[in-house]
Each structure stands twice: as C-alpha cells, then as structure tokens.
Q: What sequence folds into this?
C-alpha cells in the first residue's frame, strides 16, 4: 500500500520548486531545508495524494511582525507561487493555501516558522499552533519498530476505511488512534496473516475509547477530539470485522471477504503490505 515511486518523484519535484520560490522571495536560504511535509505523507502513512500538507518555512522575524496578518501572509505566498504554478488552481482555506497540481496530486501549503529542535509554529484554522515534528516522528517510528511495521500498515488501512466510508475525520486523528492502540497493547505484534485479527482488535479498542474526552497527540503537545458521530461508524466496522473473523475461522473465506469489502471496498487484506 505504498504510493507509486513516480508519484513520489513528482511530489519531491514540486516541493523543491515551491520551496525555491519561497526561499528566493524572502531571501531565506533555509526554506528548502526547514520546510517539512506534515500529516499522513510526512509520517509515511498516506495512501492518497490529493491533499499533501507541506509546511513552508518562513523567516522567524515575520512571525513577530505586527504589520502582516494571516490573510496577508497567505496572499503574499499565493502571489509568489503563481509565478510558477500558473495553470494550477488556488483556493484560500482556513488551514493554508491549496494548490491543485493535477487530478491525483494537490498540496496544502501551510506557513510555519522553525524555532527550536524541529519545533514549528504553524498556521491552522486562522490561528497559530505549535508542533514538534521531531518528537512526533521519533515517537511514531519507535512504536512502529516495536510492532514490526504493524503501526504503519494499520494507519494506511485506516485511510482506505476513511475514504471508502467517506468519514469526516482528519488523518492525524486516525494515526493517533492507531498509535495509542499499539502503545497500550503491551508490545503485541501481528503477522500479516493475522491482520484481520489486528483490525478487529483495533476497532474494538476504538469503540471502547472513542467516546472519551480526547486523545493526546503523538508529539504530546495537544489533545485531539474524535468527531461527533464517529462511534456509529466504528460500531459498524467492529461488528462487521468480528463477524468476518469468525467466518474465516470456520473457513467461510468468501463470506469473510464480502464482509471486509463492506468496510474497505475492493481493498483485500492479503494485499495490505507492499
């Protein structure tokens, strides 16, 4: 379930072009090095590429300037990028600036300022927030190593679930759910042949915990709230997965696959690994 190598090269090429423009405009050589992919693509859990979040590093002095508000900053970056991406569609959103490259690739450009130890101040919903990308990636990678890539695979499968069921939930929350599931599992790992069991255990965990007040983000900086109505979708996923698991144990393989398709569409468990 990895993104095709040709698309990865295309993403890297566009990232370099975007950061070069910003670097030149602000006379800020560190823009290319300091700019980072955020979200699912940054954590390597992305399956789809229509909305890749790219945190563009801006000189820190601009953050402390009172002469430039959020809207002005977005318009400024918009003007800079239009010199290169003339054929792209731009739209201001409350989390940054969207660039439509083609039908399968798009970027969400987010202004940010790096100030210490891979910690960034970034624009989100018209306010400034703090994210420690270094801590997020370190903690995520540590749990993923302990689970022998179970965490990475589960995160990717949850993107398929979200897409097929058209769930209104952010990717960071899906990855956070999976991160806490394995963090609280006592080091349990699943073989690829047991991924049906892993998914059933995960949906059981989420059904029990999604009504709680929130989940601590992977970097430990914020509390993320599950969206209203998520419990109904999780209940359906858990009961369907549990039935599919029991059918597989009884060797009703086709019946089990039919139930998994009700959760993931044409996605098949045996193909969940690259």
A:
């Amino acid at each position: 379930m990895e993104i095709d190598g040709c698309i990865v090269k295309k993403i890297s090429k566009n990232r370099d072009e975007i950061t070069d423009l910003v670097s030149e405009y602000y006379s800020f050589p560190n823009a290319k090095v300091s700019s980072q992919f955020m979200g699912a693509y940054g954590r390597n859990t992305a399956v789809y590429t229509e909305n890749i979040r790219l945190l563009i590093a801006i000189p820190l002095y601009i953050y402390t300037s009172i002469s430039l508000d959020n809207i002005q900053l977005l318009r400024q970056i918009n003007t800079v990028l239009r010199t290169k991406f003339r054929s792209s569609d731009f739209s201001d959103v409350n989390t940054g600036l969207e660039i439509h490259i083609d039908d399968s690739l798009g970027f969400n450009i987010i202004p940010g300022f790096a100030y210490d130890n891979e910690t960034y101040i970034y624009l989100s919903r018209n306010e400034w927030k703090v994210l420690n990308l270094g801590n997020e990636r370190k903690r995520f990678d540590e749990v993923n190593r302990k689970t022998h890539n179970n965490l990475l695979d589960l995160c990717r499968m949850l993107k398929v679930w979200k897409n097929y069921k058209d769930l209104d939930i952010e990717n960071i929350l899906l990855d956070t759910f999976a991160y806490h599931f394995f963090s609280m599992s006592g080091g349990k790992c699943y073989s690829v042949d047991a991924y049906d069991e892993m998914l059933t255990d995960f949906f059981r965990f989420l059904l029990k915990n999604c009504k709680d007040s929130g989940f601590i983000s992977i970097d430990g900086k914020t509390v993320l709230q599950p969206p209203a109505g998520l419990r109904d979708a999780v209940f359906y996923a858990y009961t369907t997965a549990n039935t599919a698991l029991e059918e597989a144990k009884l060797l009703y393989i086709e019946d089990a696959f039919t139930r998994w398709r009700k959760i993931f569409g044409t996605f098949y468990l045996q193909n969940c690994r690259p």
Q: What stands out?
A: The CA atoms of residues 30 and 184 lie 39 Å apart. Residues 270-274 have pLDDT under 50 and may be disordered. Residues 5-26 form the longest helix (22 residues). The beta strands are 36-37, 52-57, 89-93, 96-102, 105-116, 119-124, 127-132, 215-216, 223-224.
